[in-house]
Here is the input.
Amino acid sequence: MTREEKLQQILGKNEYDVADLVTIVELLRAPGGCPWDREQTHRSLRRDFIEETYEVIEAIDNNDPVLLREELGDALLQIVMHARIEEEEGRADFRAIAADVCRKMIHRHPHVFGEVKADSVGEVLANWEQIKSDEKSRNTVTDKLNAIPRQLPALMRAAKVGKKAKELDFPDIGAVLEKLEEETAEVRAALDSGDRGACAEEIGDLLFTVAQLSRFAGVEAEEALTRATDKFVRRFSAVEAAVTADGKDLGEMSDAEKDLYWQKVKKM
Here is the structure.
């Protein structure tokens, strides 16, 4: 089918499906298409893919089905763009990528598509991890730790690493708390020394331990930190508004005065 025939086919429709999206992206990147789309690469689209993923998460967190539908579409567009680049390079196309994930899902769910028994979520996850390890030839715990992407948010990666390294995990949450106190003392010592490299290392150790504490407490560290940051922004906004209403300048107030407003806001 020629470019003009594909254009007319797309323009003649009122309803579209995934196959049409694949064709639209092909037309955008083809000669005579969109200059911006034509110059994109996997690397140039990397940040956009990350941003679109977080926008999907925002829609989920806000329980907004209208926004979720839109953001899922934007994320799907990113996938189709990357698939098109792969096709242009002669490595794979959208159909092949979809076929691969279909085969993966069938293989990793033998309790649905095979004869394996799995009556609980725990059994399903254990089977999944074993199958995945066999597929990827991850024979040691180190193999599994190295397979966790460094590009994950740092607290999320720290929690996953701690969970995977169960052979050296803390025995209980009490031991994590003891480690937290130890790491806090080491941060103080590094700060007293004035050694910035030591400070960075010890603060990193402290954050890693906090991630493990969150894991033992059944709390997602990333989500907990996001909520804490949101709370701080809300309280700061309330303090700033109260100070302004009183005809004062927050930047010119003493620490004691600021604390009075902060404590008042915390009680609200």
